[in-house]
Amino acid sequence: MISIAPVTEEEKALWPKDVIVPLDLEFRDERGVIVPLVDLKMESAVLISSKKGSVRANHYHTTDWHFCYVISGKIDYYHRPTGSDSAPEKITVNAGQQFFTPPMVDHAMVFLEETVFLTLGRNSRRQEVYEADVVRIAPINP
Description:
This protein is mostly beta strands. It has helices spanning 9-13, 127-133, and strands at 27-29, 32-34, 44-50, 55-61, 66-72, 74-81, 89-94, 98-101, 105-111, 115-121, 134-136. It is 8% helix and 44% strand. The termini are far apart.
């Protein structure tokens, strides 16, 4: 049996308000640098590499959210509220930037160059949990 926790209003209040997430101040000392990425309860961390010109997503999640931190490369990220007929907004995300996708947001990613990014998600990334929460849509990217 697959169990996915419902989204609460308290949880929503902790989400970023903008797609691009400003990173907290980094901690530097003689050993190097620590950059805080996410300080929320989550169940998955996935490292994804994508070839130039490839497309990912074209779906939405019913409860899952994810922060994506771009390690290298560049992504055109398209998003709009689920159920909307409006044209999606496009945001270009560069290496060193992080973006956030809440539940119930149609989204797609087009990779402008070879890209590696880290996805930190609310729900487990086990395939059966992922499939129970994702809804695929017609492409929203050009």
